[in-house]
Amino acid sequence: MARRFPRGPILDGESPFRDASGNNPFADSNATPSVPGQDVYASPLSGQAATREAGNYDAILTSRSGLALGLGIPGLILSTVAAFGTIAGITSGRDVGGGLSLGIPIALLALALAIPGWIVAQSDCRAMRAGAMQTTHRRGTRAGYACSVIAMFVAAALLLALPVLVVFSLL
Q: In this predicted structure, what is the pLDDT of residue 120?
């Protein structure tokens, strides 16, 4: 029994997938291969690796070097301020808590800016190498990548070194 579709102004209960003779007009015809033994459903490159040449893309992405720099430079500045402020606050001996109370949140904020900047710049560099992105801002993207990586390592080193600095200042 054929499936009945609900009545409506367009379908009127008839199947949109069958023509008047009951065949599916969207299905492949019963084509026979022109060469015996040939698979009609195989891709034209069967047996070969499909390769993409650089620059052979339909749509070229725009560069996000401004975003990479906008995340990397403040992350670098904040991680440097956090490092110097924390070390100065702890080693001065006056206020160990002051150095920690400012250094930890600033270092975490620096990480929050540096990690997305690193990810954006790294994906843009990959897209530029593949030819899917404009290469006009390659230097800005690389600078944002470098700033983000340095900021991330400075902030992470500070957060990992804080227990040692606190113990050292208490002695």
A: 94
Which of helix, strand or coil describes residue 61? Answer: strand
Q: What is the pLDDT of residue 79?
A: 93
Closest C-alpha to 121, from 73, 88, 79: 73
- Residue segments in the chain with a per-residue pLDDT below the cut of 50: none
- Spatial neighbors of 103 by CB under 8 A, at least 6 apart, are 82, 83, 85, 86, 89, 158, 162
Single-letter amino acid code for the residue at 23: N
How far is residue 162's CA from residue 150's CA, in Å, rounded to a whole number? 18
What's the pTM value of the predicted model, to 2 decimals? 0.62
Residue with tokens 């069958």: 18
Show the DSSP H helices in 13-95 as ranges: 65-91
> pLDDT value at position 93?
64
Q: Where are the alpha helices (DSSP H) in 29-64?
A: none
Domain ranges of the chain: 65-170
Residue 2 confidence (pLDDT)? 56
